[in-house]
């Protein structure tokens, strides 16, 4: 018997020692002690909610198509300014009635509107931060879409009341109560949509929205271009945007089309940037038309909706790279 070990090509060479108390060989070379098993799922990482698992599903939210779940996209509200809100201006650019004959009163009115707007944006930013960073809350709002649509119903009803009804919009304290409920409803909707995107996309959208809004506001205070003369154009833009949003939401609900989604989001961001300029000049009052002295609730409501819509459309564009 040869004392040399068998050659590698020897067909009679035993692959493993025979006899004794040796454990059986592990399949495919994987150890059998607490290590990863073949075809075993890996533990989810911190960003597991952004990537599909086996079969295209997500943790806590089954999805069999292999694509990330689409965040809800309700149709936007038509941009409407009722006639009882408007006032015609003097030739010198200031309102002719309602105690707005002096610049100081107009500045007081503007400060009041922007203080209300700052409080609204602070509430919305806080809710978006909670829905984005707190993982249990993030999963809860994603898995309970009924609450989202309930908040959309509240948003729709109160928006109609504040726009169409003069009494609730001007009577204190009901105007602040309705505006507070409206702000909470739209903030919940914004936070829910933001929860479907990465924190990087949310931060970028917030930063770009802030730059756009500041730039538009400074431009409106400095320019001599009067957007308020184009009321018919902005009315048509509002109707077109409303119809386009309904069509896009219906189509994307049945089949996700990337280019259609991006086109819709780009058009929405541009149109609401124009609405922001239009509403800001209505607030300033040194143009052909302006909003009346008692309409600080409507002024804050209009600009707030413009800012939120710009943020949501930018978030859809920026966050598409993560889908």
Automatic annotation (TrEMBL):
Chief localisation class: membrane
TM region(s), chain numbering: 113-134, 146-164, 176-197, 203-221, 233-252, 258-278, 298-318
A single GO cellular-component term on record: membrane
Region described as Disordered: 1-71
Subcellular location: Membrane
Keywords: Membrane, Transmembrane, Transmembrane helix
InterPro entries: Bax_inhibitor_1-related (IPR006214)
Bilayer topology: Multi-pass membrane protein
GO annotation (BP), single: negative regulation of apoptotic signaling pathway
UniProt cross-references to Pfam families, sorted A to Z: Bax1-I
Domain of life: Eukaryota
Family recorded in the similarity comment: Belongs to the BI1 family.
Alphabetized PANTHER family for the sequence: BAX INHIBITOR-RELATED, PROTEIN LIFEGUARD 3
Protein name: Transmembrane BAX inhibitor motif containing 1a
Organism listed in the record: Neogobius melanostomus (round goby)
